[in-house]
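Question (not urgent): is this output format expected?
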Amino acid sequence: MSYNWTLLKTNPQTQKRYVDCVREYAPDVEMYFPQYERKVRPHGARRPVVKVRPVYPGYLFVRIDFEGPDIGKLVRLPVRARWVRFGLADESHLDIIPNFVVERLQILEKCGRLVVEVKHVSPYRVGTAVLVQSVQFGCIAATILRLIGDHKAEVNTTLGKAFVPIHMLEVA
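Got this back:
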């Protein structure tokens, strides 16, 4: 018996149902799909709630005996799934994922470092003092009056109001 990790692809919306089917029809098959916690605020809710989300939606690491009967059983369940093949793999062979890859994913997941969400906060806000980089006039002191989308700002300078691309601004 040679138990190795391989990869299955399901529809992301049916991933949970597929896992339930595998647990019912093939309880001896070991599965793993990394997850992380994400704070979301549902529509109409006052406070954010923590939701558990898959890191790779629709993908499941499966540890099976490549010579055993479970290979065919996993793709003939009521919920559809297919084997993931890397490169130009032969249809009759499944690709092996090394144990250290899955072990490393599990370690990072336990530490909470597998997915780190970073919220980008723009330094450009209404009222911020900035320097406008201009080819003709050099650096001009200005104040942001309003932001127009993510790429432009209306600024008030000593020369008057102007619409300036964000990449030409520098926080003073």
